[in-house]
Amino acid sequence: MRLSRWPALAGLTLLTAACAMEREAAPAKTTAAAPATVAPAALAPGQGERAAFVVEGDLVKVNNTHCGVTRSPMGPETLGRFTTRVAYEGADPRFRGKTFEFNQCCGMCIEKFPQIWAERADEILAYHGVAQQAQRTD
Questions:
Q1: In a domain, 28, yes or no
Q2: Number of independent structural domains in the chain
Q3: Which of 72, 81, 83 is nearest to 127 (CA)?
């Protein structure tokens, strides 16, 4: 019996395409001061996903289902397989001293995420719904 390789190839192709989306959307670099990676486009608060985050002391597990870099949806087989932990150093006093754990879609996104986080931590928290949910008092 011969098994088809198409399902495995299709999955690999989709994963590669999701990681490549950011590279294709990046504008051409014209100066030496341009960042090494391009952060995803800005979104208004409330746009994005509503991750079911869990707080364990100073660790916040975001449990995001959209990649922290490409913002593409991830399947259940990817969730928890590739994660990145980053410390919050932004202006919001609610998050100072906290470490956030994000799911990523692949190893390449694990490498890119810390730089994007350093540039846009508050935007990333808003995209994944953490900032809005943390503000609720009810």
A1: no
A2: 1
A3: 72
Q: What are phi and psi of 130, to 5 degrees?
A: -70, -45
Query: Which of 92-95's residues contact partners 24+ apart within 8 Å by CB, and which partners?
Result: 92/122, 92/125, 92/131, 94/134, 95/60, 95/125, 95/134
- 61 found inside a domain: yes
Residues in the chain: 138
Q: How far apart are CA 50 and CA 125, in angstroms?
A: 10
Tell me whether residue 20 is in a domain: no
76-96: pLDDT as tens digits: 988 889 999 999 998 888 888
- Copy the structure tokens of residue 95: 């998050």
* pTM over the 0.70 mark: no
Mapping DSSP to helix (H, G, I), strand (E, B) and coil, where does residue 92 land? coil
Element (H, E) at 54: strand 54-56
